[in-house]
């Protein structure tokens, strides 16, 4: 897996450890220090949601030690962590809709598995 901002050339993370988490947290903090109006002019989502979207995987899909380091280095407030969780839960739906658009049943199936995996515990009972 390669973790990098699509607008910035990067290298794959060597390890999902605390040091890597701090590096990513510092990068995202610097990235988000750009003025909101300027970022939106360059194609970023709304100033409120860009940080949450960028942090979604790092805070909620990465190994816990990595996620804690990202949050600490970034200085993620509880409301930002919560919004990032919502974006993380929405992520697999992109795979579902892509599969539907391209006629890829395996992609749809994979996306739906991701949707179910990201639901809060006890939300979905399977037979």
Automatic annotation (TrEMBL):
Name of the featured protein: Uncharacterized protein
């Amino acid at each position: 897996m390669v973790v990098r901002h699509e607008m910035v050339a990067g290298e794959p993370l060597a390890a999902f450890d605390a040091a890597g988490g701090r590096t990513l947290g510092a990068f995202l903090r610097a990235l988000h220090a750009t003025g909101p109006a300027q970022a939106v002019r360059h194609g970023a989502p709304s100033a409120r949601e860009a940080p949450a979207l960028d942090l979604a995987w790092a805070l909620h899909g990465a190994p816990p030690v990595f996620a804690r380091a990202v949050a600490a280095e970034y200085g993620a407030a509880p409301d930002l962590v919560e919004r990032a969780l919502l974006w993380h839960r929405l992520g697999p739906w992109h795979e579902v809709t892509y599969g539907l658009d391209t006629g890829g049943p395996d992609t749809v199936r994979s996306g739906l598995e991701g949707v179910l995996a990201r639901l809060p515990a006890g939300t979905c009972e399977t037979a």
